[in-house]
Amino acid sequence: MRVITLNVNGLRSAERKGLARWLARAEPWDIVCVQEIKCLPGDVPKSLAAPRGSHATFHPAERKGYAGVALYSKIAAPTRAGFGHVEFDAEGRYLQADFRDLSIVSLYLPSGSSGAHRQASKFRFLDAFLPHLSSLVQGGREVILCGDWNIAHQPIDLRNWRSNQKNSGFLPEERAWLSQVFDEIGLVDVFRRLDPRPDQYTWWSNRGQAWANNVGWRIDYQIATPGIAATARAASIYKNRRFSDHAPLVVDYDFELS
Hints:
Elements: E1 2-7, H1 11-16, H2 19-25, E2 31-35, E3 55-59, E4 69-73, E5 79-81, H3 86-89, E6 94-98, E7 102-108, H4 116-138, E8 142-148, H5 172-183, E9 188-189, H6 190-194, E10 203-204, E11 216-217, E12 220-224, H7 226-229, E13 232-237, E14 249-253
């Protein structure tokens, strides 16, 4: 089973940059989770409405041109939009597909980088979402949460960690929250389990020469329950072409989707 996650920073923008062609030509995939679609289902480009004949579900934000998530799968599955929180469900941040033995989530955590009010919103999300993560794990199903978590966990996960310790995305409180996800709830950072190397990033600022110099952050994850995480066999960050300021994170699992 191949699972891809990508923050597209606008589905229509990503389509113009070749995302649909890449999805059509890439090695066969089973699941693609996308975040920050910034459009309503009726505005999705035709080529991204159901790439490779997939089953597509979109969960847009109520606010036009903002946030929103989507999920493509090779087989149909019941879906759940939102995790039961009025504020954040209205922003289109959570979409869950339930297959027979596995739930897959397309997830987009808030960013706090635009100001104190957005950081406060991000902290509210973290407080509300942690109990939901616990309930997912306790439900007995295997789960993969794919998406832009907007937190770099450790110094290895961003180039300039020393100068970013007071910036959103690498605040001590955010990192401690993510440590809870791993150490207390028991979920697994699948990419890091397979690839311990430094300089492996999924997002680069559009300012300066961040992309050219690989001055990035690893803020996009596939975070999974231990059972399905143990089946992961390969993980990669696709950087041959750019579809947004994020790069696709691709993980292959020794698991049959059904």
